[in-house]
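Sample A.
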Amino acid sequence: MNELNEEFDSKGLTIIGVPSEPEKQTVQWVEKHGAEYAYGYDKSGKLQSALGVTGIPNAVLVNPSGTVVWQGHPSGLTKQIVES
């Protein structure tokens, strides 16, 4: 995600991590993995439910009009998918 964030930030891509873990665990993960993108919390699970997330980790690519154009495991979100 850091690579995509770095490459596409200037082109309007915003990456936001939404962990399901408590804040303390999230901060530890961010520090350990050097995540350089924003993150927020979905304590109630409303966002996961609205997006139909059934497994973690999960990534969602939403276009500027608000339409989900890709969803899956973060490792499958490639530069080519973002560019398209």
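Sample B.
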Amino acid sequence: MTLDDIALTLHTGLGAITIARLVEHFGSAEEVYAAGENALVEAGLKRPIAHSVALRETHARAEAEYLYMQQRGIKAVAVGDAHYPRLLAEAADRPHVLYYIGNIEVLSGHTLAVVGTRNSTSYGSIMTDKMVEYLSGRVAGLCIVSGLAFGTDSNAHRAALRYGLPTAAVIPSSLPDIVPSEHTALAKEIIERGGVIVSEFHSGNRTARNSFVSRNRIIAAVSEGTLLVESKASGGSMTTAEFATGYNRTLLALMGRATDPTSAGTNRLIVNRTASAVCSG
């Protein structure tokens, strides 16, 4: 990871897909900056954005970002680096840079996303624990991935810690801040137990509604499979399921009672044969 990698992500008008396309076209962030304005236009950038890139207008901010990281114990990995998550690198909308605290290497082994409603029922909580316990004895090196939110997410992280599995939390805020702040202690334990806290957002980011959607796409993309424990008919976990399907990942869903609103989404995925049914741990 270089300053060029960070600087590339700071240009207004360059989204994740465009950055991925540029890096694939030129070979690296360094080569993007070495290309020159005309070559960048020929590669598909609009002239004003190409001009900004050619002038290296965001490099001063990238230097400030790097200093911010050093002062707070934050590390970063870019596409092409050895420890950039293997599956995430395959996604067309991958973030070019990931910021993290902890052991990023846990995302390069076997990974399962466990997500669901923030208002988990006792049934959902018990089943999350049982399924993580079951998998802990059967999948060597498994990492449980989730979003550190209330309900199912935090249940999944805690179950992983309980049964000796590393766990990765993808958050919708810039590090070292934790969202929600009530889970700061949980985040610290995840790191201390060999897991990782991950974010695509630099320090200048302000958490907004679309930050959670972006977080959900990363959860799905880094994971070999996604398990929905409980979900209403719509919401963040259903968005994660859509991303998982789009990335051609395995999608699993826990069966629930037909009359239970917190299982409306998972049951629909099963009925529509979008997800495979999970009945027990």
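B remarks: The mean pLDDT is 95. The longest helix spans residues 122-136.
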